[in-house]
């Protein structure tokens, strides 16, 4: 892939980076909670929140991939279209298993 390729998330890149920084902050908060010997259930509650935030981010990124990369490849047809659909299907399977 060339550096000039525009990804489906490109128009939302700044917003995505902001979300990921928030999630990173949540994970750092978890580290702090363990360092400070916080109550297990409180830590697990925060793990759940961070997990949900990552899942939400993943679903949004997948939606952008489907509506941009997969649709464009499907319009062009050929082996690239088949590859993009297979990649998306594999990504969905990984998300469902996680």
UniProtKB/TrEMBL annotation:
Keyword Ligase attributed: no
Coiled-coil intervals: none
Source taxon at top rank: Bacteria
Keywords assigned: Copper
Family: Belongs to the CsoR family.
PANTHER family: COPPER-SENSING TRANSCRIPTIONAL REPRESSOR RICR (PTHR33677:SF3), TRANSCRIPTIONAL REPRESSOR FRMR-RELATED (PTHR33677)
Descriptive protein name: Metal-sensitive transcriptional regulator
Lineage: Bacteria, Bacillati, Actinomycetota, Actinomycetes, Propionibacteriales
């Amino acid at each position: 892939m060339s550096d000039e390729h525009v990804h489906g998330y490109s128009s939302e890149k700044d917003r995505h980076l902001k979300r990921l920084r928030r999630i990173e902050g949540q994970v750092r908060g978890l580290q702090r909670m363990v360092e400070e010997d916080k109550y297990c259930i409180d830590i697990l509650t925060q793990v759940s929140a961070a997990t949900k935030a990552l899942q939400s981010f993943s679903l949004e990124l997948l939606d952008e991939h489907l509506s941009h990369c997969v649709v464009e490849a499907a319009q062009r047809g050929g082996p690239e279209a088949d590859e993009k659909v297979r990649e998306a299907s594999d990504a969905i399977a990984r998300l469902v298993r996680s």
